[in-house]
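Contributing new records

If you add data, match the layout below exactly. Sequence lines come first and carry their own label; structure lines follow with theirs. Keep one chain per record. Anything else will be rejected by the validation script.
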Amino acid sequence: MKKSIVKRWAYTVFASTVFVIVVIGVLMGLFIKNQYYDAVRMTLNSRATSLVMSYFNSQTTVSDELFNKMAKNFVDNFSDKNVMEVWVIDKNGHVVVSSTGFSVKGESYPDYNYAKADENGKGEWIGRMKNNEKVMALTYILPENSQGVNGAIRYIISLQDIDRQIYTIWILIGFLLILVICFVITSGAFFINSIINPVRKINETASKIATGDFNVSIEKHKYDDEIGQLCDTINNMAHEIGETERMKNDFISTVSHELRTPLTAIKGWGETIKLAQNDEELVNKGLDVIVNETERLSDLVEELLDFSRMESGKLSLKKSQIDIVKEITEVLEVFESRSNREGIDLNVDIPFKSIVINGDKNRLKQSFVNIIDNSFKYTSKGGYVNVKLRVNNSSVFISIKDNGCGISKHDLPKIRQKFYKANNSARGSGIGLAVTDEIIKLHEGEMIIESEIGVGTTVSIILPRNNK
């Protein structure tokens, strides 16, 4: 069963937050109740200590009649009748007089027994009287006189009004806690929605991308946060995958054409040679075409194999001490006949007889062929291709410059990408520069491409002289 973010949030964050809030509310309610009850308790204690000690401690008689009279006077003179009720209890535990004047028959006062058992002579009780009124009572045992006889004073305060105040405060606290919980729910819902809605859109978009729809995009997120960055990343990913898919399709189309052209030529000339075996000139011409087209196919297959090795990380070098002047000169000799055939000037500026570096001569030749071949492909008749070589103590600089059609600013950053072709009108698979760039990097070198539409292109290769 799938669990959503909302459920996890409800089970963890929300539930724990509500639990903590409820616990805090209960503790606050209990604290307030205890504070109020402590205030009542302090009031009762202060009364018992001050009034009783000052009034009854000075009496020495043990006469019941005189005690009862003194108790009545004490109650009559009690000034806080509107705040609390007071009883006077005789030595036998019977109520002598009550400040309310009503009968107390049938009332229980367990605090009297608590006081008799207490070493300080005090007993407290919270409970309900016969009329169901909740009270707090404090009984104080009177000091013994010379005859060792004493009675007790009982103070009673109603807790009804106090409890009402406490309940009111509890209701306010509960209301505040509900507001806090509502705030948590609202803010949490807003936060969760700010995540869930974009994630849902991201999921839908990713599903479409998975099915091959690379034109989809996610609406720009209104917050520049991690979710917004993820939306931008998904959009960029879809765009890049779409571009890669387009380039792959172009690549397949191009390679199919590149394969079909020489195969068609080979098949056509093979059939021609078969029918014209006695025409030696025609046979030789056909064989030359077949050999050239076969070499072209072989080069294309090798290029595809190199690309496959590069993608799998298995493109390796067989380095040795090589003469870079010798290797590039051999490449240029191949292009001299092409230069004459296509009417393009090939200008060479290599003022060195020998420069030894550590490298893979076949891979470097392959790189030079790819770059110079591109220069010829995109340069019209009457143009030029200039090759220059320079050195310093640490590096070899090789520059191949042409005045061909050039590359636009839009295409220039992408021409090293696999399958990318800035000009689809020219032959080629679109992976030659990607392989070349990888070969130069494996030599710890750098390839720099500068170009301008209608002006031409300059490719600079920088190779270290002392790399191992």
